[in-house]
Structure formats: structure tokens, C-alpha cells
Amino acid sequence: MAELVWLNGALLPAAQAAIPVTDRGFTLGDGLFETLLLRGGAALDVPAHFARLAAGAELLRLGLPFDATEMATMLARTATANGLAEGGLRLTLSRGPGPRGLLPPELPAPTVLITAFPVAEPRPVRTIIARHVARDETSPLSRVKTLNYLPNILARLEAQERGADEAIMLNRAGMVAGASIGNVLVRVGGLWLTPPIADGALPGIRRAKLLAAGLVREAPIDQDTLQKASALCISNVLALRPVIALEDAALPAVGLDEAGVSG
Q1: What integer is the mean pLDDT of 190-199?
Q2: For residue 172, what is the domain's CATH number?
Q3: Residue 54 reports pLDDT greater than 60
Q4: Which of 72, 106, 188, 260 has the least CB density, counted as fewest CB within 10 Å?
Q5: Which DSSP state fits 141?
Q6: What domain range includes position 189?
Q7: Number of domains in the chain
């Protein structure tokens, strides 16, 4: 079956879906996205994803063209149309087409795109500490998932160039902020810790559930603490990956027992 995508209220073959060349998501990165885990044919934690999306939309002064219930319906229809019960969904929201220049049109017509995809079995990863790019913990954009992911892309490219799978990103003050594709969990003295939002950590959906369950604590993490950690994990909604190496130091492939709060 050909891949079907949701584009502005319609399910279309991916090859036929077209977005205007003047779309501000393409020309300026003016938009947001959410990635959701699909299990048993249902997208998990839609209310939490909608809340984060809504917070980002408010920051960008971008009106949401749907509510949480409509978002759940669009996601479910996309998964069903693709015959996918287990995998992932990505919802991309841009401000839509606009004229040249930075200011948006007075009456934006947002673009809503949803794609479905399979998810591979998670595997342990080798990591480095990114040295050429940092997260800006002083920017409110560090708290939302915008379409401009260039710092994360540069960090991931640095990891690849240095023979690793993933990059741990510091903030501008040199404190641990996160990874290029998610949150960082650090085991210190028998406790699992994760950096605070104030240090540039993304407010991840799985991260919030782990904190609420008391399995992880929020605390500032400096580079010395990171390098002395007894175990590390990289967390996002799609997977919780144990880290088996940080720079040149091997680590045990220890995973966090999520006790039923995964996703």
C-alpha cells in the first residue's frame, strides 16, 4: 500500500501531497512539530503533546487550527489509513504560505501535515559531547519543538564525524542540556537525574512521566558529573536507549526500569 499522509484535512498518497514553495515552514522554519508513539493503533499521550504544541504555538503567535480532540482524530485516521498499529506519527504545523520578508500575512493559513512510520527496535548508542554547538538555555525556543533544528543537526553530524551515534549537548554555560534527539538521564549514586528545563532541556513527554513516577529526579548536571556517571540513557517518546560509551569511556548498557510508564 502506498504511504498516505494527512495534509490540511485530506488523506493523500505521499507522492501527490504538495506544499506551496512559499510555505514559511520551508522558507523560514516557521512552525512546530510533535512526534508521537503509536501502540495498538492509538497515539499515546495526545493531551500532553497537544499541550506542548499549544505552548509553542502561543510563543510563536501561531493560531492552532485544531483542538486536542481533532488532533487525536487526525492522528488516528492517518495511522488507520496506513494500516499501522505499532510505530510513530509526526505532526508538522507551519504558519503556511506567506510573502517575502519576516512578517507573516495578516490572515495565515497554517499547513498541517501528519506522516506515519515504523519504529525500529531501540539499540544502545555511543555518544560524544558536542563541542561545536550548544543549546541556548536563555531562549524560550529551547522549550518547544520548532522546525529549525539546526543546532541538533550540527551536533548529530559532529557525532557521526567522530564515530558515535549520538551527541550530548551542553548549554551556553557548559552544563548538560540534553541530546540531539531527546533528553539525557544520568545515574549518579544510585539515582537517575535529568537536567532542568532552565538549563536548556526540552520538556520531553517521556521525561515528564518518569519525573511524575519518581523514577528520575531533576538536577543540574555539570560535565564532571556527566563523565563520572555510572550509567547514561537517551530518552524520547519513541525509545529509551542505554548509552554504552561516552567519548572514549565505556559504560554498562544499563536501562532504566520504567515500571509501566514508557511512551
Answers
A1: 96
A2: 3.20.10.10
A3: yes
A4: 106
A5: G
A6: 125-250
A7: 2
State whether 72 and 93 are in the same domain.
yes
Q: Are the beta carbons of 114 and 70 closer than 8 angstroms? A: no
Per the model's pLDDT, the better-predicted residue between 215 and 1 turns out to be 215
What is the rounded distance in angstroms from the CA atom of residue 184 to the CA atom of residue 233?
Answer: 6
Sequence-ordered list of residues with C-beta below 8 angstroms from that of 177, at least 6 positions apart, any chain: 134, 135, 137, 142, 169, 170, 171, 184, 195, 199, 200, 201
Selection from 139, 165, 3, 8 nearest residue 82 by Cα: 3
CATH code, domain carrying 73: 3.30.470.10
Q: Is the pLDDT of residue 141 over 80?
A: yes
Mean pLDDT over 138-144 rounds to 95
- Residue type at 231? A
Question: pLDDT at residue 106 above 80?
Answer: yes
C-alpha cell at 172: 551556553
Whether residue 219 sits in one domain with residue 106: no
**Residue that has been written with the C-alpha cell 547514561 in this structure:** 232
